[in-house]
Fold this protein.
Amino acid sequence: MELILTQYLAELLAVISITILTIVTPGPDFVIVARNSLTYSKRSGVLTAIGVASAVWVHIFYTLAGIGILLSKSILLFSIVKYLGAAYLIYLGVSCIRSNSDLTEVTGSKSSKSISDFQSFQIGFLNNVLNPKATLFFVSLFTQLVSPATPLGIQITYGAIVSISCLVWFTLVAVFLNKESIKTGFLRAQKSIERVMGAVLIGFGIKVAVSATN
């Protein structure tokens, strides 16, 4: 019994460590949450974060079902996922660059171009679920760090830890970036910042598209 507990504790610590290191590294999810929080509202940023955290469960379920391994072994299937993800990132980047949304003077002002709660959630969800690096992350996590003998319930618990970690981190990002002082700075350079964010997203998309499949 003690050996079993030690094994699961080691896996748990490994999952937590890898998860934290992965989510705090700026990537497409970070850029999208930051963009929606700054351009629209704190609520939009938080809902985008919820979308990202919800998409994590899609990766968890197909990985536990064995489909994740199939994706990692099939060049064709993984390429389809890869190019869909790359195309979506580039689309978001172009949308940022071409955006005509304008924030009015500070004091809790909203963008003149609104976005619905569902759209905020959808952007975060699709951004993560179509990210091939997320696929590789979960396949690696559950095949390299987690033993096949680990009970399904515990593996789902590991997945929940990843999802909750994403939700907490990106919610904090959305809330922090919506502080008045940061919002004021963003207002002064909104167009330039949106173009930079758009260029970063396009860069991520191109990087995904040209990256090696295996």
